[in-house]
Amino acid sequence: KPTLGEKREALRIASQIALEHGVTTVSDLYADFEVYESAVAENDLTIRFVCCVPPAAAQQLKEPLSWRIDKDHCEVKFVKLFLDGSIGARTAALREPYADMPKETGRLLLRDRTAEGLMLEFNDMGWRLAVHAIGDLAIDQAIEAFRFVRMEGRRFLRHRAEHLELLRPEHIGWLKRLNLVASMQPNFVARWQRKGGLYETRLGWERTQRMNPFGSIVRYGVPLAFGSDGMPFGPLYGVIGALTHPEPSERLSLRQALLAYTQGAAFACGIEGQVGTIAPGQLADLVVLS
Q: Got the DSSP string for the chain?
């Protein structure tokens, strides 16, 4: 287990990598309280962080505002929930089996009432949700749970669905109706969504072509936010994926891709009043490219 000093050094290195890629704000999807409290106390954060915490930590904190340790550099707003795993490990939950393992359909980690109860609890406590759902079966579960929260909750906050790789058309309609943010990673397209790539090996080419449907998301008017998932970190690598999707109708323009990394990402993090656009009153986060 790493020491606090080792974790602080890792945070410093990660922040430097972010700055080298022109990134000034990062969404940390599984934040470590101790590291951020220590860094803020020593005025040692060089970029901004919008943090997600595990369910147990959120239940302990009661509400997100109780750990807004430094609003200029670090806010904790989200609870991260995992509904399934990954395509590569064959743990993403699918309606139909994996092409290279016909008896395997992955794992659904939270089902029906469990998912609905947790999500309702956190929504009503004032936490926004970042829900990891990659396979189409997991996305089914995410949408059903969000529908339940929308009907039963005292209010319905701005929530995010993370990854959404194997989206179906009916899913996109529900994302729009529920006002969910599609938090997606075009890095996956550049890295895996090619002929002979990981997606085709695991799922076959027909499903591979349908994955990561950015163009459909934009046409439906669903808020789209791009990130990297650290695979690899650089946004420009992801821009290439967004512009060269194997299905031409799902490709974005350069402007659309940049908006998803800036305005869309800020909206997904709930900080669109500070960053994400070049406008009066916004922070002057400007990146100069060669």
A: ---HHHHHHHHHHHHHHHHHTT--EEEETT--HHHHHHHHHTT--SSEEEEEE-HHHHHHH-SGGGG--BTTTEEEEEEEEES---TTTT-S--SS-BTTBTT-----SS-HHHHHHHHHHHHHHT-EEEEEE-SHHHHHHHHHHHHHHHHHSSS----EEEE-TT--HHHHHHHHHTT-EEEE-THHHHHHSSTTSHHHHHH-HHHHHHSS-HHHHHHHT--EEE--TTSS--HHHHHHHHHS-SSGGGPPPHHHHHHHHTHHHHHHHT-TTTSSS--TTS--------
